[in-house]
C-alpha cells in the first residue's frame, strides 16, 4: 500500500498530469496500447519522470483506477444520500450502471487488466481489493441506514446485495467490451427488475 510520503508525491502537478494522460490514453488506445512513451508525450514530461513517480505501467494503472474510483465514490455517495426509498436506490444504481456500461467501458477495462496483474503481484492485489471493497461499501452503507430506519427491506445483508448489484454491472460492462456497440438497454432494464427484488419498500 502507498505510504503517506508516496501519496504526497503523487499529488504534485506533474504526477496528476501523468495520471490524466494515462486515463486519456487508455480511453483511446486501450491498456495494451498505452505505453510510457505515449503517456509521457501527452503529459508533456520525460519518460524517466513516469518511472520516478510510478515505477511501472502497472503502478500507474493502479493510480488511475484509484483516482477514478475516488471520483465515483464521491458521486455515488452524494447521489445515494438523497435516495429515500427502494425505488430511488435502484434508479440511482441504474443511472450509474448506464454511465459505466455505455460511456466509460475503459474503467472496467482497467479493472480487468489490474485483476490479471493481481494474480502475480500481491501489492496490486491488495490495491484492487481495496478499490472493489470501496465500491461495494458505498452502496451497502446507504442500504444499511435505510434498512435500519425501517424504510426498506433487503433480500440479504447489505454487503451481499451490494456485491450482487456490482456483479450485474461488471458482467454487462465485460459483455460490452467483448462486443462494442452492442445495445445493452434491454439487459439493463432486466437487471433493474431483478434489483427491485433485492430492495423493497417497507
Please, could you describe this protein's structure?
The structure is a single chain. The chain has 202 residues and is mainly alpha-helical. It folds into two domains: 55 residues, Arc Repressor Mutant, subunit A; 143 residues, Orthogonal Bundle (Tetracycline Repressor, domain 2). The protein is built from ten helices and two strands, in the order ααααααααβααβ. The chain has a two-stranded antiparallel sheet. Helix 6 packs antiparallel against helix 10. 29% of the residues are buried. The N terminus is likely disordered. One of its GO terms (molecular function) is DNA-binding transcription factor activity. Keywords: DNA-binding, Repressor, Transcription, Transcription regulation. InterPro entries: BetI_C, Homeodomain-like_sf, HTH-type_TetR-like_transc_reg, HTH_TetR, Tet_transcr_reg_TetR-rel_C_sf.
Provide a concise account of the structure shown.
The protein is an all-alpha fold and 202 residues long. The chain is built from ten helices and two strands, in the order ααααααααβααβ.
Topology:
Layout lengths: L3 H6 L3 H17 L6 H8 L3 H8 L2 H25 L4 H18 L1 H14 L3 H27 L3 E3 L3 H21 L6 H12 L2 E3 L1
Antiparallel strand pairs: 1-2
Task: Summarize this structure as a short list of keywords or feature phrases.
202 residues; mainly alpha; Arc Repressor Mutant, subunit A; 2 domains; 77% helix; disordered N terminus; transcription; HTH-type_TetR-like_transc_reg
Amino acid at each position: 500500500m502507498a505510504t503517506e510520503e508516496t501519496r504526497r508525491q503523487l499529488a504534485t502537478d506533474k504526477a496528476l498530469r501523468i495520471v490524466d494522460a494515462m486515463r486519456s490514453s487508455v480511453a483511446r488506445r486501450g491498456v495494451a496500447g498505452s505505453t510510457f512513451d505515449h503517456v509521457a508525450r501527452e503529459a508533456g514530461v520525460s519518460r524517466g519522470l513516469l518511472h520516478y513517480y510510478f515505477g511501472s505501467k502497472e503502478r500507474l494503472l493502479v493510480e488511475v483506477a484509484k483516482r477514478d474510483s475516488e471520483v465515483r465514490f464521491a458521486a455515488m455517495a452524494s447521489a445515494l444520500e438523497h435516495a429515500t426509498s427502494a425505488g430511488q436506490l435502484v434508479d440511482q444504481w441504474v443511472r450509474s450502471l448506464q454511465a459505466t456500461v455505455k460511456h466509460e467501458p475503459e474503467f472496467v477495462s482497467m479493472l480487468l487488466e489490474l485483476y490479471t496483474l493481481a494474480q502475480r503481484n500481491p501489492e496490486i492485489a491488495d490495491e484492487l481489493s481495496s478499490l472493489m471493497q470501496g465500491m461495494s461499501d458505498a452502496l451497502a452503507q446507504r442500504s444499511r441506514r435505510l434498512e435500519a430506519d425501517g424504510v426498506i427491506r433487503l433480500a440479504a445483508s447489505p454487503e451481499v446485495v451490494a456485491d450482487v448489484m456490482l456483479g450485474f454491472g461488471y458482467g454487462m460492462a465485460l459483455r460490452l467490451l467483448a462486443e462494442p456497440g452492442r445495445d445493452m438497454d434491454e439487459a439493463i432494464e432486466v437487471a433493474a427488475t431483478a434489483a427491485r427484488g433485492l430492495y423493497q419498500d417497507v
